[in-house]
Amino acid sequence: MRADRLLTLMLLLQSRGKMTAQDLAAELEVSERTVYRDVDALSFAGVPIFCQSGVNGGIFLDENYRVSLTGFSLKEVRSLFITSGAGPLRDLGLGRASSDTLLKLLAGLPEVHRGEAERMRQRFYIDPEGWFHTLDPVPFLSVLQQAVWDDRVVHFRYQRPDGTLTERSLQAYALVAKSNIWYLVGRQMDGEMRTFRISRLRHVEISAEQFSRTPEFDIVPFWTEACRMFEDDRRSDEPSCEALVRVHPQAVRSFAGNDVGTFERLEQPDPQGWVRMRVTFFSFHSACTKVASLGTNVEVLEPLELRQAVYETARQVVELYAQGEELALAGRVR
Protein backbone atom coordinates (compact mmCIF):
# COMPACT_ATOMS: atom_id res chain seq x y z
CA MET A 1 0.00 0.00 0.00
CA ARG A 2 2.85 2.42 0.80
CA ALA A 3 4.46 1.87 -2.60
CA ASP A 4 1.17 2.81 -4.29
CA ARG A 5 0.92 5.90 -2.11
CA LEU A 6 4.46 7.01 -2.94
CA LEU A 7 3.80 6.61 -6.65
CA THR A 8 0.54 8.53 -6.37
CA LEU A 9 2.29 11.30 -4.44
CA MET A 10 4.88 11.70 -7.19
CA LEU A 11 2.24 11.70 -9.91
CA LEU A 12 0.21 14.32 -8.08
CA LEU A 13 3.23 16.58 -7.97
CA GLN A 14 4.10 15.80 -11.57
CA SER A 15 0.62 16.67 -12.85
CA ARG A 16 -0.22 19.63 -10.57
CA GLY A 17 3.14 21.10 -9.71
CA LYS A 18 3.88 22.46 -6.25
CA MET A 19 1.42 21.34 -3.55
CA THR A 20 1.21 21.92 0.19
CA ALA A 21 1.53 19.03 2.64
CA GLN A 22 -2.04 19.71 3.71
CA ASP A 23 -3.37 19.31 0.16
CA LEU A 24 -1.33 16.15 -0.39
CA ALA A 25 -2.56 14.70 2.88
CA ALA A 26 -6.16 15.33 1.83
CA GLU A 27 -5.61 13.73 -1.58
CA LEU A 28 -3.83 10.68 -0.15
CA GLU A 29 -6.13 10.40 2.90
CA VAL A 30 -3.22 10.36 5.34
CA SER A 31 -1.78 12.77 7.91
CA GLU A 32 0.63 15.58 7.08
CA ARG A 33 3.26 13.79 9.17
CA THR A 34 2.90 10.76 6.89
CA VAL A 35 3.32 12.98 3.85
CA TYR A 36 6.62 14.33 5.18
CA ARG A 37 7.81 10.80 5.98
CA ASP A 38 6.97 9.76 2.42
CA VAL A 39 8.86 12.78 1.06
CA ASP A 40 11.92 11.78 3.10
CA ALA A 41 11.68 8.21 1.80
CA LEU A 42 11.48 9.37 -1.80
CA SER A 43 14.39 11.75 -1.34
CA PHE A 44 16.48 8.98 0.24
CA ALA A 45 15.65 6.78 -2.78
CA GLY A 46 17.06 9.41 -5.13
CA VAL A 47 13.85 11.08 -6.32
CA PRO A 48 14.47 14.84 -6.85
CA ILE A 49 11.72 16.01 -4.48
CA PHE A 50 11.99 19.25 -2.49
CA CYS A 51 10.24 21.15 0.30
CA GLN A 52 10.05 24.94 0.26
CA SER A 53 8.93 26.86 3.34
CA GLY A 54 7.22 30.22 3.44
CA VAL A 55 3.99 31.76 2.22
CA ASN A 56 4.29 30.36 -1.31
CA GLY A 57 6.06 27.21 -0.24
CA GLY A 58 5.15 23.62 -0.76
CA ILE A 59 6.42 20.27 -1.97
CA PHE A 60 7.53 19.84 -5.57
CA LEU A 61 9.54 17.72 -7.97
CA ASP A 62 12.38 18.82 -10.20
CA GLU A 63 10.65 20.08 -13.35
CA ASN A 64 12.78 17.80 -15.53
CA TYR A 65 11.80 14.68 -13.60
CA ARG A 66 9.07 13.09 -15.69
CA VAL A 67 7.95 9.81 -17.22
CA SER A 68 6.50 10.51 -20.64
CA LEU A 69 3.79 8.36 -22.24
CA THR A 70 4.16 8.63 -25.98
CA GLY A 71 2.14 6.99 -28.70
CA PHE A 72 -1.27 8.43 -27.72
CA SER A 73 -3.14 10.19 -30.49
CA LEU A 74 -5.17 13.31 -29.69
CA LYS A 75 -8.47 11.43 -30.08
CA GLU A 76 -7.26 8.67 -27.75
CA VAL A 77 -6.36 11.23 -25.11
CA ARG A 78 -9.78 12.85 -25.42
CA SER A 79 -11.60 9.53 -25.07
CA LEU A 80 -9.67 8.61 -21.92
CA PHE A 81 -10.37 11.82 -20.05
CA ILE A 82 -14.08 12.37 -20.65
CA THR A 83 -15.41 12.44 -17.09
CA SER A 84 -18.04 9.81 -16.34
CA GLY A 85 -20.01 8.56 -13.37
CA ALA A 86 -18.21 5.65 -11.72
CA GLY A 87 -21.13 4.01 -9.90
CA PRO A 88 -20.41 0.44 -11.07
CA LEU A 89 -16.68 0.89 -10.41
CA ARG A 90 -17.46 2.04 -6.87
CA ASP A 91 -19.64 -1.06 -6.43
CA LEU A 92 -16.63 -3.19 -7.32
CA GLY A 93 -14.36 -1.25 -4.97
CA LEU A 94 -12.49 0.28 -7.91
CA GLY A 95 -13.70 3.89 -7.76
CA ARG A 96 -10.50 5.24 -6.21
CA ALA A 97 -8.38 2.98 -8.42
CA SER A 98 -10.05 4.43 -11.51
CA SER A 99 -9.28 7.97 -10.38
CA ASP A 100 -5.68 7.05 -9.58
CA THR A 101 -5.27 5.39 -12.99
CA LEU A 102 -6.33 8.55 -14.79
CA LEU A 103 -4.05 10.57 -12.56
CA LYS A 104 -1.10 8.38 -13.51
CA LEU A 105 -1.97 8.61 -17.18
CA LEU A 106 -2.33 12.39 -16.96
CA ALA A 107 1.01 12.75 -15.21
CA GLY A 108 2.77 10.64 -17.82
CA LEU A 109 1.34 12.36 -20.89
CA PRO A 110 3.51 14.68 -22.94
CA GLU A 111 2.97 18.36 -22.15
CA VAL A 112 1.15 18.96 -25.46
CA HIS A 113 -1.50 16.36 -24.55
CA ARG A 114 -1.95 17.17 -20.85
CA GLY A 115 -3.66 20.46 -21.61
CA GLU A 116 -6.07 18.72 -23.98
CA ALA A 117 -6.85 16.06 -21.35
CA GLU A 118 -7.74 18.72 -18.79
CA ARG A 119 -9.92 20.54 -21.33
CA MET A 120 -11.92 17.33 -21.94
CA ARG A 121 -12.26 16.60 -18.23
CA GLN A 122 -13.73 20.05 -17.57
CA ARG A 123 -16.05 20.18 -20.58
CA PHE A 124 -17.70 16.75 -20.92
CA TYR A 125 -19.37 14.54 -18.34
CA ILE A 126 -21.22 11.27 -18.95
CA ASP A 127 -23.82 10.37 -16.32
CA PRO A 128 -25.11 6.80 -16.90
CA GLU A 129 -27.96 7.05 -14.39
CA GLY A 130 -31.52 7.88 -15.40
CA TRP A 131 -33.63 10.54 -13.72
CA PHE A 132 -35.07 9.62 -10.30
CA HIS A 133 -32.89 6.53 -10.36
CA THR A 134 -33.52 4.02 -7.56
CA LEU A 135 -30.44 2.18 -6.38
CA ASP A 136 -30.59 -1.57 -6.95
CA PRO A 137 -29.33 -3.48 -3.89
CA VAL A 138 -26.32 -5.72 -4.58
CA PRO A 139 -25.53 -7.40 -1.23
CA PHE A 140 -23.68 -10.36 -2.82
CA LEU A 141 -21.61 -8.42 -5.33
CA SER A 142 -18.26 -8.99 -3.62
CA VAL A 143 -18.94 -12.73 -3.33
CA LEU A 144 -19.96 -12.98 -6.98
CA GLN A 145 -16.97 -10.90 -8.03
CA GLN A 146 -14.72 -13.48 -6.40
CA ALA A 147 -16.63 -16.35 -8.02
CA VAL A 148 -16.29 -14.78 -11.47
CA TRP A 149 -12.61 -14.09 -10.95
CA ASP A 150 -11.85 -17.64 -9.77
CA ASP A 151 -14.13 -19.45 -12.29
CA ARG A 152 -16.31 -20.92 -9.54
CA VAL A 153 -19.78 -22.45 -9.53
CA VAL A 154 -22.28 -20.52 -7.40
CA HIS A 155 -25.45 -21.83 -5.77
CA PHE A 156 -28.27 -19.41 -4.95
CA ARG A 157 -31.98 -18.93 -4.61
CA TYR A 158 -33.52 -16.63 -7.20
CA GLN A 159 -36.67 -14.62 -6.54
CA ARG A 160 -38.77 -14.27 -9.67
CA PRO A 161 -40.80 -11.09 -10.32
CA ASP A 162 -43.92 -12.91 -9.01
CA GLY A 163 -42.15 -13.59 -5.69
CA THR A 164 -41.54 -17.33 -6.07
CA LEU A 165 -38.09 -18.72 -5.20
CA THR A 166 -36.14 -21.23 -7.28
CA GLU A 167 -32.87 -23.03 -6.55
CA ARG A 168 -30.10 -22.35 -9.08
CA SER A 169 -26.54 -23.44 -9.78
CA LEU A 170 -24.45 -21.48 -12.25
CA GLN A 171 -20.95 -21.31 -13.62
CA ALA A 172 -20.14 -17.66 -12.90
CA TYR A 173 -18.84 -16.22 -16.18
CA ALA A 174 -19.24 -12.45 -15.85
CA LEU A 175 -20.83 -9.48 -14.10
CA VAL A 176 -22.54 -6.75 -16.14
CA ALA A 177 -23.75 -3.33 -14.98
CA LYS A 178 -26.47 -1.72 -17.10
CA SER A 179 -27.54 1.72 -15.84
CA ASN A 180 -26.18 0.77 -12.39
CA ILE A 181 -28.26 -2.44 -12.31
CA TRP A 182 -26.02 -5.47 -11.90
CA TYR A 183 -26.51 -8.81 -13.64
CA LEU A 184 -24.79 -12.19 -13.25
CA VAL A 185 -24.07 -14.01 -16.51
CA GLY A 186 -23.27 -17.71 -16.42
CA ARG A 187 -23.79 -21.19 -17.75
CA GLN A 188 -26.34 -23.49 -16.15
CA MET A 189 -25.62 -27.15 -15.57
CA ASP A 190 -27.64 -27.99 -18.70
CA GLY A 191 -25.26 -25.83 -20.76
CA GLU A 192 -27.62 -22.88 -21.35
CA MET A 193 -26.22 -19.38 -20.85
CA ARG A 194 -28.47 -17.31 -18.57
CA THR A 195 -28.61 -13.84 -17.05
CA PHE A 196 -29.87 -13.10 -13.53
CA ARG A 197 -30.51 -9.75 -11.87
CA ILE A 198 -28.31 -9.67 -8.78
CA SER A 199 -30.81 -7.78 -6.59
CA ARG A 200 -33.11 -10.83 -6.85
CA LEU A 201 -30.50 -13.33 -5.66
CA ARG A 202 -30.97 -14.87 -2.22
CA HIS A 203 -28.53 -16.85 -0.05
CA VAL A 204 -25.54 -17.05 -2.40
CA GLU A 205 -22.82 -19.66 -1.82
CA ILE A 206 -19.59 -20.24 -3.73
CA SER A 207 -18.77 -23.86 -4.47
CA ALA A 208 -15.23 -25.22 -4.22
CA GLU A 209 -15.82 -26.55 -7.73
CA GLN A 210 -14.09 -24.74 -10.56
CA PHE A 211 -15.13 -24.87 -14.19
CA SER A 212 -13.37 -24.48 -17.52
CA ARG A 213 -14.61 -21.55 -19.57
CA THR A 214 -15.73 -21.99 -23.14
CA PRO A 215 -12.79 -20.50 -25.08
CA GLU A 216 -14.94 -18.71 -27.64
CA PHE A 217 -17.13 -16.93 -25.06
CA ASP A 218 -16.93 -13.12 -25.26
CA ILE A 219 -19.07 -11.10 -22.85
CA VAL A 220 -19.48 -8.04 -25.13
CA PRO A 221 -21.18 -9.72 -28.13
CA PHE A 222 -23.09 -12.04 -25.76
CA TRP A 223 -24.56 -9.12 -23.80
CA THR A 224 -25.32 -7.11 -26.93
CA GLU A 225 -27.26 -10.02 -28.40
CA ALA A 226 -29.02 -10.75 -25.09
CA CYS A 227 -30.23 -7.13 -24.89
CA ARG A 228 -31.45 -7.21 -28.48
CA MET A 229 -33.38 -10.45 -27.91
CA PHE A 230 -34.92 -9.09 -24.70
CA GLU A 231 -36.13 -5.93 -26.42
CA ASP A 232 -37.47 -7.92 -29.40
CA ASP A 233 -39.38 -10.23 -27.04
CA ARG A 234 -40.90 -7.26 -25.24
CA ARG A 235 -41.99 -5.71 -28.52
CA SER A 236 -43.51 -8.97 -29.78
CA ASP A 237 -45.38 -9.58 -26.51
CA GLU A 238 -46.81 -6.06 -26.43
CA PRO A 239 -46.27 -3.73 -29.37
CA SER A 240 -45.69 -0.06 -28.69
CA CYS A 241 -48.67 2.27 -28.47
CA GLU A 242 -48.74 5.70 -30.13
CA ALA A 243 -51.20 8.22 -28.71
CA LEU A 244 -52.28 11.82 -29.17
CA VAL A 245 -52.79 13.42 -25.77
CA ARG A 246 -53.67 16.81 -24.33
CA VAL A 247 -51.52 17.58 -21.33
CA HIS A 248 -51.75 20.08 -18.46
CA PRO A 249 -48.56 22.16 -18.02
CA GLN A 250 -47.95 20.56 -14.61
CA ALA A 251 -47.79 17.10 -16.22
CA VAL A 252 -45.64 17.79 -19.29
CA ARG A 253 -42.41 16.87 -17.54
CA SER A 254 -43.93 13.53 -16.49
CA PHE A 255 -43.45 12.28 -20.05
CA ALA A 256 -39.67 12.57 -19.81
CA GLY A 257 -39.38 9.54 -17.52
CA ASN A 258 -38.13 6.04 -18.24
CA ASP A 259 -41.68 4.66 -18.61
CA VAL A 260 -42.25 6.53 -21.89
CA GLY A 261 -40.49 5.81 -25.17
CA THR A 262 -40.62 9.07 -27.12
CA PHE A 263 -42.75 12.22 -27.08
CA GLU A 264 -43.14 15.31 -29.23
CA ARG A 265 -44.95 18.58 -28.69
CA LEU A 266 -47.18 19.37 -31.66
CA GLU A 267 -48.07 23.00 -30.97
CA GLN A 268 -47.65 25.92 -28.63
CA PRO A 269 -49.65 25.82 -25.36
CA ASP A 270 -53.24 27.04 -25.52
CA PRO A 271 -54.33 30.04 -23.37
CA GLN A 272 -54.71 27.71 -20.35
CA GLY A 273 -51.22 26.25 -20.89
CA TRP A 274 -52.37 22.84 -22.14
CA VAL A 275 -50.37 21.30 -25.00
CA ARG A 276 -50.97 18.52 -27.49
CA MET A 277 -48.31 15.82 -27.60
CA ARG A 278 -47.65 12.76 -29.73
CA VAL A 279 -46.40 10.06 -27.35
CA THR A 280 -45.08 6.58 -28.08
CA PHE A 281 -45.50 4.29 -25.07
CA PHE A 282 -43.69 0.98 -24.70
CA SER A 283 -47.02 -0.88 -24.72
CA PHE A 284 -50.79 -0.37 -24.54
CA HIS A 285 -50.77 -1.43 -20.90
CA SER A 286 -48.01 1.02 -19.95
CA ALA A 287 -49.88 3.78 -21.82
CA CYS A 288 -53.05 3.13 -19.86
CA THR A 289 -51.15 2.96 -16.56
CA LYS A 290 -49.24 6.18 -17.25
CA VAL A 291 -52.26 8.20 -18.34
CA ALA A 292 -54.41 6.94 -15.46
CA SER A 293 -51.67 7.86 -12.96
CA LEU A 294 -51.81 11.49 -14.11
CA GLY A 295 -55.53 11.79 -13.39
CA THR A 296 -57.17 14.93 -14.74
CA ASN A 297 -53.84 16.38 -15.91
CA VAL A 298 -53.94 14.48 -19.21
CA GLU A 299 -56.65 13.60 -21.73
CA VAL A 300 -56.31 10.95 -24.42
CA LEU A 301 -57.55 12.17 -27.81
CA GLU A 302 -56.37 9.17 -29.87
CA PRO A 303 -56.64 6.22 -30.18
CA LEU A 304 -60.21 5.59 -29.08
CA GLU A 305 -59.26 2.19 -27.57
CA LEU A 306 -56.83 3.84 -25.16
CA ARG A 307 -59.33 6.55 -24.24
CA GLN A 308 -61.95 3.87 -23.45
CA ALA A 309 -59.43 1.81 -21.45
CA VAL A 310 -58.51 4.82 -19.30
CA TYR A 311 -62.21 5.57 -18.79
CA GLU A 312 -62.86 1.98 -17.70
CA THR A 313 -59.94 2.12 -15.26
CA ALA A 314 -61.26 5.35 -13.76
CA ARG A 315 -64.77 3.88 -13.45
CA GLN A 316 -63.44 0.83 -11.60
CA VAL A 317 -61.44 3.04 -9.25
CA VAL A 318 -64.55 5.08 -8.45
CA GLU A 319 -66.54 1.90 -7.76
CA LEU A 320 -63.81 0.52 -5.52
CA TYR A 321 -63.61 3.64 -3.39
CA ALA A 322 -67.38 4.01 -3.32
CA GLN A 323 -67.66 0.53 -1.81
CA GLY A 324 -65.02 1.42 0.73
CA GLU A 325 -66.83 4.60 1.66
CA GLU A 326 -70.07 2.66 2.15
CA LEU A 327 -68.32 0.18 4.46
CA ALA A 328 -66.70 3.00 6.41
CA LEU A 329 -70.03 4.78 6.75
CA ALA A 330 -71.70 1.56 7.94
CA GLY A 331 -69.00 1.13 10.57
CA ARG A 332 -69.46 4.69 11.84
CA VAL A 333 -73.22 4.21 12.06
CA ARG A 334 -72.84 1.08 14.22
CATH topology of the largest domain: SH3 type barrels
Cα gyration radius (Å)? 29 Å
Continuous helix count = 11
Structural class of the secondary structure composition?
alpha+beta
Number of domains: 4
Helix content: 40-55%
CATH level-1 class of the largest domain:
Mainly Beta
Q: In angstroms, what separates the terminal alpha carbons? A: 74 Å
Mean pLDDT: 80
Amount of beta strand: 15-25%
How would you portray this structure in words?
This protein has 334 residues and is of the alpha+beta class. The strands form four sheets. The chain has a five-stranded antiparallel β-sheet. It is extended. It has four domains: 2-61, Arc Repressor Mutant, subunit A, CATH 1.10.10; 74-126, no CATH class; 141-234, SH3 type barrels (Roll); 241-323, Alpha-Beta Plaits, CATH 3.30.70. The chain has helices at residues 2-16, 21-28, 32-44, 74-80, 87-91, 95-108, 111-123, 141-150, 219-237, 284-293, 304-333, and strands at 49-52, 58-61, 83-84, 125-126, 152-159, 165-178, 181-188, 193-197, 201-210, 241-247, 262-265, 275-281, 298-302. The chain is 43% helix and 24% strand. The longest helix is centred in the last third of the chain and has 30 residues, at 304-333. Strand 5 (152-159) and strand 6 (165-178) form a beta hairpin. The protein has eleven helices and 13 strands. The termini are far apart.
